Amino acid sequence: MKILALDTTSGACSVALYSGGQICEQFVRAERDHTRRLLPMVDQVLAEAGLSLGQLDALAVSRGPGSFTGLRIAISFTQGLAFAADKPVVPVSSLAALAAGARRSHPEWRDAPIVAMLDARMQQVYWGIYAAETPNDSMLPEAVQDPERVVQRLREASLSQPLYGAGPGWHYPPFADAPVAEYDLESPIHARDIAELALPLWQNGAAVAAEALEPLYLRDEITWQKRQKIRSK
Known about the structure:
Residues 30-151 form the Gcp-like domain. This is tRNA threonylcarbamoyladenosine biosynthesis protein TsaB. It is built from six helices and eleven strands. By secondary structure, it is an alpha/beta fold. The protein has two domains: 2-94 and 189-232, ATPase, nucleotide binding domain (Nucleotidyltransferase, domain 5); 95-184, Nucleotidyltransferase, domain 5.
């Protein structure tokens, strides 16, 4: 199985190639210039593996949630590659990828649920909870909510302890009262984790045609309009 994965969801840009159980990745922390960086990174990982785009089985990309601009860049770029090579695409949750990367970086967390969290701005976060046994599926529905509401839901949920947190969304002060043993604000999303999460999804028939690929924003249009009105007052 050969899968090329891309991510520009947050403050990083990464490309990874999964081939026969091996992964090579290009990763850089960059708030801007994602569009300029992606193609050379794709060329590099393909060259390292001695493969061409046409030899891939599929592409994979973060479907969101995340930055509007970041998601559109990664998805549009992936669609272009998929159209050019006539390959399907596997959409992967950016929060699931964040949790998988944190579990890889913190082996001591390997058996515990991880609460992945991205800053949604407007004093809200995108979040989900991921167990090692079901890394693609959040134990509660992925959501965008105020930090206070997240803390409340974590306290009300019947979840095994300890819990751990990962991602830049944890910076809000109310999370000081969250029922987690520890959290890592610096956990980024890596394309290598998207590639690995894409493999079981591919095997379960979750790949889509390039033209059917859509981002998941979670925050609906009505909410965006209300927030824009508030900010303009």
